[in-house]
Amino acid sequence: MESKVINKHFLLLHFIVFIWGFSPILGKFITADAFIIIWYRLIITVIVMFLYIKFSSQSLICSKELLLKLALTGIIILVHWLTFYAAIKVSNVSVTMAAFSTGTLFSAIIEPIFFKRRVRLYEIGIGLIIIIAILMIFSVEGKYWLGAGLGVLAALTSAIFGVINGILVKEVKPAILSFYELSFALVGLIIYFLVSNSTNLQNFNIDQSSWIGITILSLICTVFPFIASVNLAKYLSPYTIILTVNLETVYGIIWAILFFKENKDVKPTFYIGVSIILAAVFLNAYIKKKTAKY
Question: How far is CA 146 from CA 32, 90, 143, in A?
């Protein structure tokens, strides 16, 4: 029975990652800059999550200490989203997704610190294998170093808030956790706009196609996947979730080839790298099943 439950959770995780794999394509498709994309994405997502919570009669009451933790995590999520979409804008989807896969190694190092356990050498090893696969998938040219750097920062922040949520989800329901974190992320972005005075109001006027892209990004690629992924932290370790999210790299690059013809930037060793990432994901699942340490 336990094996069936775990398999169910893995299947849901893979479905979520498949959905997320299309989000960088939308980020490239939307003509607005990263700040405007995140601005509208947060507004739509927070409103829909609030309506869902009210409709499901869940209480929003949390302690001040918990709200502070959710606020700090929300800021980390904001930085993650901004660096992720900024990386796409200054480079391309392939570079961003390749750099983003470094999250596996970050998670293998960060998770033991927060969960107060020993570092598992096989997790470090799998993380290094993923990085080797990334190098095989894509060779970053000099003009893409900024995008690659932002992609790595996005991976680091993703690993951090993923591990933190693995702890916080034990204290608060996933929907409430997600609502507060993204609400605080929105507040953080508002404060940035007020302090920086660097955003032209005309930038908030986006075309119809961008509105369609942002709506899909918010409703399909954010609301359900975000809440569901937080809930999965009850059953799967943050490392396992981050490792599986590497498939987002595979999906994202495949979509980028189909939509933006980015295969010109991808070496022939792409398929070997993809196979290695897939093997690493299932190897981790196999090892964890054998050791019963989720």
Answer: 19, 7, 7
